[in-house]
Design goal:
The structure is a single chain. By secondary structure, the chain is mainly α. The longest helix has 20 residues. The chain is built from three helices and no strands.
């Protein structure tokens, strides 16, 4: 099994990459999804429980914000 670097180093690298992705997104550039999801996994491996809960709350809020009500047809 591959030995992972210490958690503070993994966390720093993940945060650095996430800020780079944010800059790319703001400037309208495309983001490599494989690298993005790999970075999110790297962050999740290095995060503590509170950080993970915060990450999930942010993502769930974004998803719920984008949900559109489905039209219901009357019978």
């Amino acid at each position: 099994m591959k030995k992972l670097p210490p958690k503070p180093i993994m966390r720093f690298e993940a945060q650095r990459k996430i800020s780079r992705f944010a800059k790319q997104h703001r400037s309208g550039e495309t983001i490599d999804l494989n690298e993005f999801f790999g970075t999110i996994v790297l962050y999740a491996l290095s995060a503590d429980e509170n950080d993970l809960k915060r990450l999930l709350r942010i993502n769930m809020a974004e998803v719920m914000k984008d949900l559109k009500p489905k039209r219901k047809f009357d019978a």
